[in-house]
């Protein structure tokens, strides 16, 4: 169950070359490496194949070149997103002992509250190496992980209704909304890869996703300047797509794979950041990039002559996965005589659970 297949040489290379320094002033920008901004309403409301195809090509090019896109015209109302953010903030405001009663405890379930320091995201797949990193430089964040609520085996860990009234209902409905958007974006991916538009439909319909609420508390800047320390260390995501909703604080950075420099993914109001994950890169024979990203300290506020505070930040990530029993083997249009398939087939469950088991303490 915990077996994991990973590109070991790729991982080792990244670990050797990765720049672990994490303060925003390290960022050098490169104007040729830009996250494209795509108006997805042109796909959702398209009246012809040609209109759909134009957007699909933009989406696929974004994932090929950068691995990240900004989506506007996604159809999720601002009030829906605001409501999810305010309910998330209310959950994190609960006392630590209350949050501990719904603690995350099993990578197969991947549900519940994760306190600061428990997770250390990294590219390494080596449990010992990750444990050492976690001890030295844990991620400065707390999270709440939510899965499909009707899972036959794993139950979500809900706080008592009276502690955050409406939380469960808001999150279940947000989960459904994100699932629906992801399904349409995957249709654009299919078209852009010259597959039938509905190619992925029956491979991604069981909602094996993970809705993650993130809270990055205000922190003294000096604590984030330690070598290797970040709000979230450099990593790629594990699944197919991640829908990322961020507030206006900033700090998310994306690695330019050519220069290895990290560049800011500045919050743009009304947009959702979407990135391709490792499983989609693998499924597509590396036609898509699963780009490294991290969360660093944005501009800090001075609290004394020697110390400054980095403001708190909130985000919500919806990690999209294929059905757990979907066999991830090279997509038919991503291989030919000159591009043999690089990876052995693996099921979603084998891959994702293995990665999660290594990441948490
Ligand atoms: O909080 C963010 O902006 C990014 C979080 C992230 O990359 C993750 O949880 O995988
Ligand atoms: Fe991520």
TrEMBL record:
Keywords: Iron, Metal-binding, Oxidoreductase. GO terms for molecular function: metal ion binding; oxidoreductase activity. It comes from the Eukaryota. Coiled coil: none annotated. SUPFAM superfamilies: Clavaminate synthase-like. InterPro entries: DIOX_N (IPR026992), IPNS-like_FE2OG_OXY (IPR044861), IPNS-like_sf (IPR027443), Iron_ascorbate_oxido_reductase (IPR050231), Oxoglu/Fe-dep_dioxygenase_dom (IPR005123). It holds the Pfam family DIOX_N. Residues 207-322 form the Fe2OG dioxygenase domain. Belongs to the iron/ascorbate-dependent oxidoreductase family. This is Fe2OG dioxygenase domain-containing protein. The lineage of its organism: Eukaryota, Fungi, Dikarya, Basidiomycota, Agaricomycotina.
């Amino acid at each position: 169950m915990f077996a994991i297949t990973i590109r070991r040489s790729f991982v080792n290379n990244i670990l050797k070359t990765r720049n672990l320094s994490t303060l925003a002033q390290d960022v050098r920008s490169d104007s040729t490496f830009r996250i494209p901004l795509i108006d997805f309403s042109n796909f959702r409301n398209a009246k012809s194949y040609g209109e759909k195809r134009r957007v699909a090509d933009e989406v696929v090019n974004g994932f090929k070149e950068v691995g990240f896109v900004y989506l506007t015209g996604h159809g999720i109302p601002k009030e829906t997103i605001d409501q999810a953010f305010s309910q998330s903030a209310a959950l994190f405001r609960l006392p630590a002992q209350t949050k501990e009663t719904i603690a995350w405890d099993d990578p197969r379930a991947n549900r519940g509250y994760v306190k600061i320091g428990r997770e250390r995201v990294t590219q390494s797949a080596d449990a010992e190496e990750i444990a050492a990193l976690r001890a030295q430089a844990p991620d400065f964040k707390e999270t709440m992980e939510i899965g499909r609520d009707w899972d036959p085996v794993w139950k979500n860990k809900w706080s008592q209704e009276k502690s955050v009234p409406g939380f469960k209902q808001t999150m279940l409905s947000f989960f459904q909304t994100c699932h629906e958007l992801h399904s349409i974006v995957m249709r654009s991916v299919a078209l852009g890869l010259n597959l039938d538009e509905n190619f992925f439909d029956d491979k991604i319909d069981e909602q094996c996703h993970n809705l993650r609420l993130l809270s990055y508390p205000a922190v003294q800047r000096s604590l984030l300047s330690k070598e290797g320390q970040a709000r979230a260390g450099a990593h790629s995501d594990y699944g197919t797509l991640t829908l990322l909703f961020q507030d206006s604080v900033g700090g998310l950075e994306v690695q330019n794979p050519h220069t290895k420099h990290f560049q800011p993914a500045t919050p743009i109001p009304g947009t959702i950041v979407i990135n391709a994950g490792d499983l989609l890169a693998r499924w597509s024979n590396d036609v898509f990039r699963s780009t490294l990203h991290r969360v660093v300290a944005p501009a800090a506020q001075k609290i004394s002559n020697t110390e400054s505070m980095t403001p708190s930040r909130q985000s919500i990530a919806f990690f999209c996965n294929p059905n757990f029993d979907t066999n991830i083997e090279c997509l038919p249009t991503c291989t030919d005589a000159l591009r043999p398939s690089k990876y052995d087939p693996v099921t979603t469950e084998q891959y994702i659970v293995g990665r999660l088991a290594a990441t948490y303490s």
